[in-house]
Design brief:
Elements lengths: L1 H10 L1 H13 L13 H27 L5 H33 L5 H7 L1 H18 L4 H28 L5 H26 L6 H30 L9 H5 L13
């Protein structure tokens, strides 16, 4: 059950990325403005990370058949662990790109979203290569490294979610998808720290619950992306989370988050 849940959560990453890109492509006239532009770096990231994760999942049975303790097995495990670091770096950089998309004036959001593609992809490759070369893959330092990356990602994503609401910078479906991912990452940080620093032994039931949360979060993100694609195909505009509420408010000149 645990391996099935873990595989399901992993294999849902790629569909979310592909659906996000498909929805973005259908946003005629809204692709490079707000709130549509934020879907592009999100789709790029999760497509790349999902493909990476899927390759790891497919190669895992091969790894299990290798002779444990052999040089080939040790090197393969090292690259698998390094890939986890690389994927985390990619999501962290994506969160930073989304923050930049929301921070710049609306007319520049598309340029920032386009320009963020290369750093996202480069961070995945560079993070993997750097980890494979320099990282210490003993349990405590390795899990601590993953915790630091995931924790930083959560902090940046929370800022993105706040600014996304304050500036109506992303539609409510993407906001909810990123919120679900933030919750998943926050739980991962807590679990990693418990394992690394407090030597807490997790029972099988706790692991199953953890992977259930991961799987449900990713499934929810996929459903939200499907819904956004349906709206895009229909030519419908999806509002920001509190856009209608903000529209009823009279804004004074120079007010914070007054728009661009």
């Amino acid at each position: 059950m645990m391996l099935l849940l873990q595989a399901a959560a992993t294999l849902l990453i790629l569909p979310f990325g592909l659906l996000a890109l498909a929805a973005w492509r259908r946003m005629e006239g809204m692709r490079w403005g707000r709130p549509g532009a934020a879907w592009f770096p999100t789709g790029v990231c999760f497509t790349a990370v999902g493909a990476y994760s899927g390759a790891q999942a497919l190669l895992a049975p091969v790894l299990q058949r290798m002779e444990h303790g052999s040089a080939a097995y040790t090197e393969a495990v090292r690259w698998f662990q390094a890939a986890n670091v690389g994927r985390g770096c990619g999501v962290l950089v994506t969160a930073a790109v989304l923050a930049a998309v929301l921070a710049v004036p609306a007319g520049q959001a598309g340029r920032v979203a386009r320009g963020g593609t290369a750093p996202i992809l480069l961070s995945i490759v560079a993070g993997t290569a750097a980890a494979a070369r320099y990282a210490d893959f003993e349990l405590k330092p390795y899990i601590t490294l993953l915790s630091v990356i995931a924790g930083a990602t959560v902090v940046v994503l929370l800022a993105v979610l706040f600014v996304g609401v304050a500036r109506d910078g992303m539609d409510q479906l993407l906001w909810m998808a990123l919120a679900a991912y933030s919750v998943k990452e926050a739980l991962s940080v807590c679990l990693f720290l418990l394992l690394a620093w407090w030597s807490v032994e997790m029972q099988a039931a706790a692991w199953v619950a953890f992977y259930w949360v991961n799987g449900l979060a990713m499934a929810g993100m996929v459903l939200l992306a499907i819904r956004r694609l349906q709206h895009a195909r229909a030519g419908a505009v999806v509002p920001a989370l509190f856009e209608r509420l903000h529209a009823t408010r009279t804004r004074a000149p120079g007010e914070m988050f007054s728009g661009d």
